């Protein structure tokens, strides 16, 4: 389902030298020695009753409303947003949601733009509304503030009792303000598993509920992830492209390539790279180490960042995510400018190849990860592939993949700044 190609400009990768370390990491991960490694076997152990419960809640939401507001930040929204953008039409909210009898989905709580919230509330007046609030800790500033706002809106519009029936909460089983509130008000709740951290949680109720509401097949998605768990279960580095990718990015980091630029030629993968940026950035960039993840959407950004890619400081490498089979292709037969490229997808592939060749001539290493298709199954597979590759890469770099001590400092400052006297 996934394929790895790479073009290095200097040496080749000494795979065998990495094998002892990879074997150690493999055992450590598979024994789930560190905290927050529950994602490793989650696709294999998620209970059918939970999946059914999520599907039932999704159906209920679809019947109750025409607009669902999903409140969450970081790992509590990026995965669902990435999946919906990858698998639903780019015109989903504008057109398809109504046509397919599914609610429009608005993501909120991941920023504090007053203009956005004013306009969102205005927009919601002409819709039947449900809210899904997601926060593992139940105390994060942005989603908490926005949830307060939405709860007041819902109560004013529907009354306290009916509002409670339209609010769904996904949070810790016991801890946090959101848990106490949900229990007190009787919201329908789902639990974020204790042993899975935010950025690794898209295959738990955190991602599954909003994704199921959008009409995406979560059962296939979990099957895709389970298939990936089996496919990348081999400690032998020569047989495991997930480990090879983890090693490649580490190897390039050791050579001073400290920026990884994720590039997508299919726009539907754009938000997937936002999810990747959080996964790698928060997991690996610590203790003064790590590769900085960036992203570009091609061919758009060749016309803005192409200059840097071709001629800029050589401290980066490119990781291109491509799709082999596209369901809907556009014929370019009557377009003289397209030359022998008979379709848009074909032309896109030619542009990718041409850019790669030009950048390689200038000494930039290039990794290409090809997914066979855009489907729920492929999304589950990709999520697992990158989660495991990220953990491997972090251990090779010598950092702990599952904490994020660096985000605490600014949070302390905010708390001090808003504390009432
Ligand atoms: O990966 C992480 O742990 C974070 O990015 C969290 O997902 C993010 O901070 C949101 O946290 P919470 O779900 O507790 O509101």
SSE order and pairing:
Elements: E1 2-7, H1 15-30, H2 42-45, H3 48-64, E2 67-71, H4 78-87, H5 92-99, E3 104-108, H6 114-124, E4 129-135, H7 141-158, H8 160-165, E5 167-171, H9 177-185, E6 188-191, H10 205-213, H11 218-231, H12 241-254, E7 259-264, H13 270-284, E8 292-297, H14 306-311, E9 316-323, H15 344-361, E10 366-371, H16 376-397, H17 408-418
Parallel strand pairs: 2-3, 2-4, 4-5, 5-6, 7-8, 7-9, 9-10
Antiparallel strand pairs: 1-10
The chain binds 5-phosphoarabinonic acid.
Residues 73-76, 135-137, 140, 143, 197-199, 282, 404 line the site of 5-phosphoarabinonic acid.
Can you characterise this structure?
By secondary structure, this protein is of the alpha/beta class. The chain folds into two domains: 2-31 and 222-397, 3-Layer(aba) Sandwich (Rossmann fold), CATH 3.40.50; 38-216, 3-Layer(aba) Sandwich (Rossmann fold). It is 49% helix and 14% strand. It has helices at residues 15-30, 42-45, 48-64, 78-87, 92-99, 114-124, 141-158, 160-165, 177-185, 205-213, 218-231, 241-254, 270-284, 306-311, 344-361, 376-397, 408-418, and strands at 2-7, 67-71, 104-108, 129-135, 167-171, 188-191, 259-264, 292-297, 316-323, 366-371. The strands form two sheets. A five-stranded mixed beta sheet has the order 1-10-9-7-8, with helices on both faces. Helix 13 (270-284) links the parallel strand 7 (259-264) and strand 8. The protein is globular and about 65 Å long. The site of 5-phosphoarabinonic acid (PA5) has 14 residues, from loops.
């Amino acid at each position: 389902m996934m394929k790895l190609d790479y073009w290095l400009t200097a040496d080749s990768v000494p795979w065998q030298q990495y094998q002892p370390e990879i074997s150690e990491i493999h055992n450590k991960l598979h024994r789930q020695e560190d905290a927050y490694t529950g994602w490793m076997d989650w696709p294999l152990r998620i209970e059918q009753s939970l999946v059914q419960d999520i599907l039932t809640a999704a159906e209920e939401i679809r019947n109750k409303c025409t607009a669902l507001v999903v409140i969450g930040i970081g790992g509590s929204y990026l995965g669902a947003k990435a999946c919906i953008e990858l698998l639903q039409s780019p015109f989903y909210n504008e057109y398809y949601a109504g046509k397919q009898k599914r609610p429009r989905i608005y993501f909120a709580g991941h920023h504090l733009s007053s203009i956005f919230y004013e306009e969102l509330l205005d927009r919601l007046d002409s819709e039947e509304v449900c809210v899904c609030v997601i926060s593992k800790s139940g105390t994060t500033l942005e989603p908490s503030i926005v949830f307060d706002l939405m709860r007041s809106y819902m109560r004013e519009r529907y009354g306290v009792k009916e509002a409670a029936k339209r609010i769904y909460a996904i949070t810790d089983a016991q801890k946090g303000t959101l848990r106490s509130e949900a229990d007190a008000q009787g919201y329908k709740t789902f639990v974020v598993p204790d042993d899975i951290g935010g950025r690794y949680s898209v295959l738990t109720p955190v991602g599954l509920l909003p994704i199921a509401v959008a009409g995406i097949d979560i059962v296939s998605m979990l099957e895709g992830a389970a298939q990936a768990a089996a496919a990348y279960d081999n400690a032998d580095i020569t047989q495991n492209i997930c480990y090879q990718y983890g090693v490649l990015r580490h190897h390039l980091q050791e050579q001073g390539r400290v920026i990884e630029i994720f590039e997508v030629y299919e726009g539907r993968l754009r938000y997937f790279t936002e999810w990747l940026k959080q996964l790698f950035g928060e997991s690996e960039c610590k203790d003064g180490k790590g590769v900085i993840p960036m992203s570009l959407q091609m061919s758009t950004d060749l016309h803005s960042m192409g200059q840097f890619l071709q001629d800029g400081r050589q401290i980066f490498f490119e990781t291109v995510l491509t799709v082999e089979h596209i369901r809907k292709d556009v014929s370019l037969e009557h377009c003289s400018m397209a030359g022998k490229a008979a379709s848009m997808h074909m032309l896109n592939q030619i542009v990718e190849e041409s850019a790669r060749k030009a950048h390689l001539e200038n000494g930039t290493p290039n990794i290409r990860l090809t997914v066979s298709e855009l489907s729920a199954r492929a999304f589950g597979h990709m999520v697992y592939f990158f989660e495991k590759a990220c953990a491997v890469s972090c251990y090779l770099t010598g950092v702990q993949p599952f904490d994020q001590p660096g985000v605490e400092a600014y949070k302390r400052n905010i708390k001090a700044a808003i504390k009432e006297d």
